[in-house]
Amino acid sequence: MPFEAAAFAARAHQHQKRKDNQTPYVSHVFRVCLVVRHTFGFDDPKMLAAALLHDTIEDTATDRDDIIERFGEDVATWVAALTKDMRLPHDAREDAYAKGLAVADWQVKALKLADLYDNLGDSKHLSPGGRKKTVGKTKFYLDAIRQGLPEHVKPAIALVERRLADLEAGLTS
Predict the structure, then answer these.
(1) What residues does each domain of the chain span?
(2) Which of 43, 55, 58, 65 is labelled catalytic?
(3) In sequence order, what DSSP letters do the residues of 99-134 get, joined into one string?
(4) Is 4 a catalytic residue?
(5) What architecture is domain 2-172?
(6) How far is it, in rounded angstroms, from Cα 150 to Cα 40?
(7) What is the pLDDT of residues 104-151, one digit of tens each?
């Protein structure tokens, strides 16, 4: 399943770039998958597929039905939970997203932690203002994810918090 998800994500994101306007966007979803597996230690094929697909509904022409058809209900549910409702104004969208994260399955929380971990690591390409924005968004999402976090996901949140602290320390030095 992860191999098919990697190919699907590569096609879906093929014309997109990261914020540096140079790096292919798909490198982010590949790294998130690697974080889930090799940094956080979760090897469920459905989680790895969802990691690869986590931005497809939000950032491409892919919809939930496409994910269900190719990867099943669990993967589609997790990807949908990681998708912001872009029809809402910014503040309402962020609030709704955080509320969804707070009550999401543990797998969604672990996937979002991997996304945050990668975004923190990738923020070195951003301006100091961009890095500060990343810090603020990360703290906001962490507050939501902490709610009801099972014990086996707590080592992942500790890794994200450590990376966040490192980024914050670099902003003040």
Answers:
(1) 2-172
(2) 58
(3) HHHHHS-HHHHHHHHHHHHHHHHHGGGS-HHHHHHH
(4) no
(5) Orthogonal Bundle (1.10)
(6) 14
(7) 999 999 999 999 999 999 998 888 898 999 999 999 999 999 999 999
